[in-house]
Amino acid sequence: MGQRGEAGRAGDDVRSDVYVALELRKSGGLTLNVVSKVDAFFGTSIRETAEQVLTTLGVEHARVEIDDKGALPFVLQARVEAAARRAGVAVQGDARPERTVSPPRSAKDRLRRSRLYLPGNEPKFMVNAGLHHPDAVILDLEDSVHPAEKDTARLLVRNALRCVDFVGAERMVRINQLPLGLEDLEVIVPEAPDLLLIPKTEGPGHVRQVVDRIGQIQHDLGGGEPIWLMPILESARGVEYAFAIADASETVAALTIGLEDYTADLGVVKTRLGDESMFARRRLVNAARAAGVQAIDSVYGDVGDVEGLRAWGRRARAWGYDGMGCIHPRQIEPIHEAFAPTVEEIEKALKIVAAFEEAEAKGLGVVSLGTRMVDPPVVLRAQRLVALARRTGMLPEEAQ
Amino acid sequence: MSGRGRKQARADLVTNAAGRRVPTVVNGKEQVPFQGVAAHQPAGVRHAPAIRSCKDYPATGDKRVPDLKTALERCGPTDGMVLSTHHHFRNGDKVALMALNAAAELGVKDLMWFPSASFPCHAPVIDLMDRGVVHHIEGSMNGPLGEYCSRGKMRGLGVLRSHGGRWQAVQDGEVKIDVAVIAAPTADPFGNCDGSHGPSACGSLGFALADSIHAERVIVVTDNLVPFPCVPWQIQGNNVDYVVEVDSVGDPSKIVSGTTQITKSPDRLLIAEYVARFLRDAGIMRDGFSFQAGAGGIALAFVQFLKDMMQEATSWMGRPSIWRRWSPLRPTRITLRRRRSPPTTSTARGTSRRWWTPRCWAPPRSTCTSTPTW
């Protein structure tokens, strides 16, 4: 009996995934045994896709069991490759699926109100994630992936980055805690994600390790667009180094915090309003602003508590945060509302901006609104607010 | 009634306007293939039952009979008859089986059961089909009945109709109902009945309304008999032949079964939200509008979203809803998604216009995404 490898999941509750069991043999070519609800429609495609991956990998003789639960091709390809690798195949060719999406690159100061976590080994959440219009999706390789499945998740996330249309959402990947995270980079960086989250960052050294490895990989590839970084502070130590971390590289675009680990590190209980982490969260904002990067808040863990989420989001905005994470698509809309300027704020900002422009046109050095003088920082804030309102669609784009 | 030619001859197939091959004869009856939207002009007059008169019931107006079997017997049951029931209790219905069993006791053979829908609770009809009491079903075949039908065990051809299509078929005489048996949560001895009150209240009896108008004989079965007149009534006693009292017509708690669960899937919720937004932004959601939602998870979630949007729209107007109730043609202006605070200025139509089209606006989210601004 030859070596065996398995990947994917089987069972009645499985959706959009596939279970692949592969047994290498000495001779006899490829034998595929496919069970699928959609065999009548996609049976041929399933067989062809699996055969193509195996041929590319250099597998000539094997018996393969495929138990399909409606997996899309990119999922099937990832699972077949993972099963072959686990069977000990000395991989020869590049079995990555053909790239079907190439969204525009994101800007460093892009709008990042919401970022939706997607477990890296769960295809069913990936397929429709973009339809919920988060500002970003995070394909997570860290805590939502079982330690025994890190290899399969890596391949699935790699394929997702090549094939899944996230409908304008920024494509983020959360790598594992270093040093394992550096291995993730080998697979993920060539797929040019927009941003990488670095969990449990404890100092600027962690950021530099990631930056160096990205640089090496991109050098070997012959170049590449910058990949933005968002270090996650998850310990008392990390919070103490907040500014140094944010300032460690030009590619750091934002700083965020992980409250579960942080409160555990402090030895305190995480509460609904998060008073115990107030120091860390407010310190983070100051450090981020000092380094000229965005401040992004943690997630709100209770999906059922929409009012709690709104309150959390509004307070985070008041403290200076630009956005927060979400663990369920229904959290996106409340977060966008919480981080949106109010109509009153926009109206006031528009008046200030108009007064500023009028003063400029007249060559006046002082901006006044009614009987009040308006200071330059107030004008700047108003301009930022108007820009945000335009980006979020609360104001029409300015006529050219 | 003569036994109809139920033996399905080898069907002639024609291509309809949708490009499908369809039979011209189903269960021995000629069919009109789909001709295209508004392309077919039906001829003839609406189907009507034989005239009834006060000679048919006692001078007191009391149409009660001891039980369903007696009522059915007086209707003059025949082999091959068409018996209709309705699904306002969905999986909690009890009357359909009562009626079919009564027909079986009377020795009726080969009847066509014409429910507005069937549910797993109707599984015992399989036995009646095996015994030759029921020839086939036209309506719907869900759960065990669907499986029975899918295995090719039903003798006739199953016919599925939309709810609107069912009304049309009854009205136009495409399906001639011999006896309609209506489960009524409240009824009076004359046959006026309604579903909005009584211990088994279930809501509208709309499916049964068509049958009460067009069926040859109408039996009302109730577990809540009230003195004449039953007010309000949805089904007119004038159209009813017999009234039967039973312990229970159905279990309203089982109306919420199977498909009737609000979905928790974020993707389905999103679909529901988009539908509600479409209704709102297209101006379909307006004072006095009406809609019908299905019982599926998405449809029920849609109702929740619509409710929120209607409340939001009402609070913006700053007027009690009664004020606007009688102006059904004026769309509620809610294209602006204003976040909080209703207007503090006058909301008379002329002056309120300004804050509906101010500089602050939010396009529907779908517009945002087709042209990302980043």
* Average residue-wise pLDDT of chain A: 91
Helix coverage percent of residues of chain B? 25-40%
The secondary-structure class of chain A comes to: alpha/beta
**Could you give the distance between the termini of chain A?**
71 Å
Uncertain residue ranges of chain A: none
This entry's quaternary arrangement is: heterodimer
Strand content of chain A: 15-25%
Total beta strand runs of chain A: 14
Helix segment tally of chain A = 14
Instruction: Give the topology string of chain A: H per helix, E per strand.
Output: EEEHEHEHEHEHEHEHHEHHEHEHHEEH
**Strand order across the largest sheet of chain A:** 5-6-7-8-9-10-11-12
What can you see in these coordinates?
- The complex is a heterodimer of chains A (400) and B (374).
- With 400 residues, chain A is α/β, with parallel strands linked by helices.
- Helices cover 42% and strands 18% of the residues of chain A.
- Chain A contains 14 helices and 14 strands.
- Chain A starts with a strand and ends in a 9-residue tail after the last helix.
- By secondary structure, chain B is of the alpha/beta class.
- In chain B, 28% of the residues lie in helices and 13% in strands.
- Chain B is built from eleven helices and 14 strands.
- Chain B has helices spanning 68-74, 95-105, 125-130, 143-150, 163-171, 206-214, 266-281, 297-317, 321-324, 349-356, 365-370; strands at 13-15, 21-23, 25-26, 29-30, 64-65, 82-85, 111-115, 134-139, 159-160, 179-184, 186-187, 193-194, 217-222, 242-245.
- In chain B, strands 5-14-13-10-6-7-8-9 form an eight-stranded parallel β-sheet, sandwiched between helices. Chain B has a two-stranded antiparallel ribbon with strand order 1-2.
- Classes of the chains: A alpha/beta (400), B alpha/beta (374).
- Chains A and B meet through helix 13 and helix 14 of A and helix 7 and helix 11 of B.
